[in-house]
Write a structure and sequence with these properties.
Elements: E1 25-29, E2 35-39, E3 49-53, E4 56-60, E5 65-76, E6 79-89, E7 94-98, E8 100-101, E9 109-110, E10 114-117, E11 120-123, E12 126-130, E13 136-145, E14 148-159, E15 162-171, E16 180-190, E17 194-197, E18 200-204, E19 207-212, E20 215-218, E21 226-228, E22 231-235, E23 239-249, E24 255-264, E25 268-279, E26 283-296, E27 305-321, E28 324-333, H1 337-342, H2 346-349, E29 353-363, E30 369-380, E31 386-400, E32 420-435, E33 445-460, E34 463-465, E35 468-490, E36 495-517, E37 520-525, E38 531-547, E39 558-562, E40 568-572, E41 587-603, E42 609-624, E43 635-643, E44 647-656, E45 658-661, E46 665-670, H3 671-674, E47 680-693, H4 699-708, E48 727-738, E49 746-758, E50 763-772, E51 777-789, E52 792-799, E53 806-813, E54 822-828, E55 831-832
Amino acid sequence: MRRYLLFIVIFISAKTFSQEPTDSVLYVPINDTLKKDTVQPKGDVDAIIDYSAKDSAVFDIANDRLYLYNEGDLKYKEFELKAARIILHRETSIMEAHGIPDTANTGKYIGTPIFYEGSKKYDAFNIKYNFTTRIGNISMGSTEIEGGYYLGEKIKKVSEDVYFIKNGQYTTCDQADPHFYFSSPKMKIIPADKVIAEPVFLCVDDVPVFAIPFGIFPNHSGRSSGLITPAYGEDPIYGRYLSHLGYFWAIDDYFDLAMQGNYYTKGRYDLYGRFRYALRYKLSGTLELGGSRIRLGEANDIDRNYSDEWRIGVNHNQTIDPTMTLTANVNFLSSINYYTTTTNNQSDLLLQNALSNVTLNKFWEGTPNSLTLNYHRDQNLTTGEITQEIPNLAFNRSQSYPFRGKNASMINLSWYEQISYNYNGKLLYRDDKLLQNPSINNGDFKKNSRGGINHAINITAPIKISEFNLSPFINYNEVWYNKSIVREFNPADSTLTEEEVKGFKAFRTFNSGVTLTTKLIGLFNTRVLGIKGIRHTITPTVTFSYQPDFSSSFWNYFGNYVDLSGRTVKYSFFEREVFGGPTAGAQQIINFGVDNVFEMKVRESDTADTKFQLLNLGANLSYDMAKDSVKFSEILLNYRTNIGTILDIGGGATFNLYKYVNGVGRINTFLLKDEGRLAQLTNFTINISTTLQSGQETSADTTTRTATQSEYVGFHGQQSLDFSIPWSLNLNYNYGINRANPFLVTKSSNLAANLNFNLTRNWKFTFQTSYDIFQKQFAAPTFIIYRDLHCWEFSFNWVPTGTFRGYRFELRIKAPQLQDLKINKQANYRGVY
């Protein structure tokens, strides 16, 4: 028999059917076909009652009773009752329902009552219920509410909203013989409010393992106020502890507050709170405050540990109107010690920076205009340096066509109608807290504040000439500052002084040019191995751009001084400002680029073909006519290819055309002329990745697995486990070599692996690590073992090496309403606890 709990059984309040009393019995045979009939509403019944039975319906007119035999069914509004035997009494307004013995199985009953109240379902052994008073008794009743199952040996309803249960049970296990349950000889149930039990026993496989003298449990959907269950344990450094003891306050439908704390016997306590709010379709967010106070050791001890750490976290999302949104993700910390003392989560422990962003986005419907207001804060948790940008205001007007009418046709546009421009304006103020000497972190900081406004306009005028696209362009940039610098060298004592000059100052830069591009397509038809053809698409591009030398005295953007050796040194007045300064030196650059795409078409069937890419290969080279020497840039290559669905291969390489002299660098001598070779490899990278996995389960298996899959999140924050793939292996190999200086070559090579496999349907193993081939060492290997125990789950996470080595064992109930019922044991670099 299923050991579910009963919760509530509410039936219809109605008079029995209207029939004139006579000394006779009306027998209505229904035969083997289910036949429905109705009773017209009268008295307290305000709707038609549908009834049916497989065998017969008998009206006892003398005693005002209706009998339904074999698969009886009554429907009234949103209520429905099914049972092997149903009896309705008019005189007493009592309904009775029960099952009948199973002739094929001694001691078993079939057709026991099932009652539906909307989407809720209630099971019982016997039901006796008064429609008028709504009071009755139920034997061996059960129901499911919010993922929990309730069962009672005897239930008595004493009023509309109070039930008493004898020998009640509660579980979240859906087995007929549940793996665990809470039991109590006396239960009082207040529907949509609470359950009161005295005493309460936790039973595993019918064996009591834990007991408390009384319990009060919430009995309604949604949130409810109450104490947060604490955990007890021992830490090797801070001693015995009582953790996350607190109170949850469900303020109303829009707000809630959770306050928790940890207490350690050896001089430490933590307090933290979380305030949440939500207004559907408008806003939602969270405010978190946390603090940790440590007083480990005596005040005069050499190895004492006195620390006060804190954290403030804000997450906010708001739709102000259809064109304006506000998002905020703010994280303020006293230092990295907050995480090292309060968490074992590896992702938190590895954090080097605490980032905060608040962004207001606004766009104007029907226009290309948009506005972004942002606050950004970057806190280096290691050095303590802080960079803040407030405000960071950006206005953008996307590509616009000033000479194109609103109703202009997109076909056969005139050349002037294709002229376009875009504008970006930015206001930025940066406030930095920096170390006086970055090489020595002695806590001595300096302030540096800078601000400015940047305007950028880009204009293009594309022209179609036969098979060629010609696109002249001009880019204009103007920057305003309220500060600049002036430097002066004193030859008497060889000192360089820098003076900050306040006052408005601006610079303007521009460059212009033209881009010519076309596309060439080559087709190779074949009928080999099902291949229908290969297509090679070549996209060559030539760009010429010009920029004057803004470091010349004509522009007055640069200063200069003569150093001790008599060399004239140029510097920009704006090099310390937020947008920097103009570049020195003229540019007359011709850039050559070519992209190659190789594609293949294969016959999939008689009516369908499949096309996929074989290789993407690109090359780029530029020549600066304004330079005195070393005018050619390095040759840049990039490539990517897929070998079916097995391998992804990609990477790049650079080659230099000039000779390298140790201690000097590249000189204006071609390798082809001096050494007889065209170019020298300076950098090469390759990445190879593959994913191997077994076949998928059947759809039925996947559906079953999805229904029971856990939402468990493990030690290092990994997502819930996927049981649909029996095994999978992800491999990623990276190799890189840097030969920018041929006399100082650096190499890197590592292999990363992630293996997942199901030993059985309920056992899942995960192993992930990376191996540095040159250093010959593993990086943070992690083993994860997970076992699905139906209504329970078990996990074991182990990091065998590294700074954050340790393990964590956890056994807990799956049901979210019982998530605090678990057993934990873990160890890390602080010890076992």
